[in-house]
Write a structure and sequence with these properties.
It is built from 5 helices and 3 strands, in the order αβββαααα. It is an alpha+beta fold. Strands 2-1-3 form a 3-stranded antiparallel β-sheet, with no helix packed on it. The model is unreliable at 1-11 (pLDDT under 50).
């Protein structure tokens, strides 16, 4: 049994996570060996000033442990989809329960929602298209 565990560890190919100190994004770095030195650069801005993060890990759950439709309904209970503060509280709670760090842009959006600002609904793209059509007409 010990021999088998050793072989599994020997073949392990870890993925290390870092936060870029320049842009704040999380970067995952795949290593072919646990013995290789980790050298990383931010894939978003190219900076090499990174801070190593403690990676989350996953474990297998039995089918009964997964959320069913009733559990999903319970998670949404009390959420007013027309109130940005209510949606922001729900989003933070879900992020914490799932153990996911969705990055600074997500946190910034939730901060604005908690202040009562409703996020863009995508209509700006339609407005931009109308502006371009007006520009074409002028030319």
């Amino acid at each position: 049994m010990c021999r088998r565990e050793y072989r599994v560890r020997e073949r392990a190919m870890p993925i290390y996570e870092f936060r870029c100190n320049a842009c704040g994004r999380v970067v995952s770095v795949f290593q072919r060996s646990i013995h290789a030195a980790v050298t990383a650069r931010c894939t978003h801005c190219g900076a090499d000033d990174l801070t190593r993060l403690m990676s989350r890990f996953a474990f297998h759950r039995a089918g009964a442990d997964h959320l069913d439709a009733a559990d999903e309904d319970a998670l949404l209970e009390g959420v007013d989809e027309n109130d940005p503060r209510s949606v922001a509280r729900w989003a933070r709670r879900m992020s914490e329960q799932l153990g996911e760090d969705l990055g600074p842009e997500f946190d910034e959006m939730l901060d604005r929602m908690e202040a009562g600002e409703m996020p863009d609904d995508g209509d700006e793209a339609a407005d931009d298209d109308e502006d371009l059509d007006d520009l074409d007409d002028d030319l």
